Amino acid sequence: MIEENEILDMLREVGALKEGHFKLASGRHSGHYVQCALLAQHPDRLDRLIRSRTGEINALGNIHTVFFPAIGAMAVGQQVGLALEKRSIFAERNKNNDMELRRGFEIREGENLLMVEDVVTTGSTLREVRKMAEAAHANILGVFCIINRSGKPTWEGLPLLSVIDLTFPTYAPDEVPEELAAIPVHRPGTKQV
Question: Is residue 12 part of a domain?
């Protein structure tokens, strides 16, 4: 197990832990953002973090497929699939901003899925891919992420495993504190909100 301080140092070292005023994919606002893509540009470090949790992931059960949303979770999902030696597929946004399976990917009825994200705050993107898995009658064994910002050990009744839990406050648009509102807002990520 890698110590929390070492993980935080790694995130800071690669510039992945940011401070400012951010509008998150959920539509909520925060003074902190973790840009996991900056961590993913160092696959050896990302691999080390993922492999530190493979025992916990494997304890979820017999995983057949790693399933994740593009674009943010691409590097994490692929490396989780590699670490577990499992098939890895992703959903991506179409021109209407809806998630869909493309490129010949399919979810098979009865297969056991591990859903993967880079960062989980509210899980709004996970909710979209979960609907796809449930429509295919697959079994979702749990969720794995690098950063759990939700403050919870589960997500919508599923086990939520993470490399590190970081709980920064988030605010609805009408609750943003004055000191945060005074900072220009930046919308990182690819999901349109």
Answer: no
**Domain contains 55:** yes
pLDDT at residue 50 tops 70: yes
On the 0-12 / 13-18 / 19+ scale of CB atoms within 10 A, 177 is exposed
Residue 108 lies in a domain: yes
Taking only the tens place, the pLDDT of each residue in 59-104 is 999 999 999 999 889 999 999 999 999 999 999 999 998 899 999 8
Q: 17-23 and 99-101: which strand pairing?
A: unpaired
Q: How many structural domains compose the chain?
A: 1
Q: Which of 57, 54, 76 is nearest to 67 (CA)?
A: 76
State how far the Cα of 185 lies from the Cα of 68, in Å rounded to an integer. Answer: 27
